[in-house]
Design a protein that fits this description.
By secondary structure, the chain is mainly alpha-helical. It is built from four helices and two strands; from the N terminus they run ααββαα. The protein has a two-stranded antiparallel ribbon. A hairpin with a 5-residue loop joins strand 1 and strand 2. Helix 1 runs antiparallel to helix 4.
């Protein structure tokens, strides 16, 4: 393989990597916003708790550190779940990567 061709492939790979990173960031922001919009509101603490957190592998994670977020998402023995994060991630993925 010629040096010029390899350099062109390396440049294309860098562009694709940048696009993937940008799409991942857009999807994370969309998922965070959708999860917040789907959050039930009594005090607003759960809705306002959605954050983006950088991960060790260079990606971004959507998190909510409110102690009862998982109980609301999945339910507990007293109440059924009110999914916020799962539907938000599916909606965000569909928006970024249409089928």
């Amino acid at each position: 393989m010629s040096a010029g061709f390899r350099a062109a492939l390396d440049r294309m790979a860098a562009v694709v990597e940048g696009l993937a990173s940008e799409a991942g960031e857009r999807a994370a922001v969309a998922a965070r916003d959708a999860a917040a919009a789907r959050s039930p509101v009594r005090t607003g603490r759960l809705r306002d708790g959605w954050r983006l957190e950088p991960a060790a592998d260079g990606t971004v994670r959507v998190v909510n550190a409110v102690p009862y977020a998982a109980a609301v998402e999945y339910g507990d023995r007293h109440r059924p779940g009110q999914p916020m994060a799962r539907p938000a991630v599916l909606a965000a993925a569909s928006a970024v990567v249409p089928r």
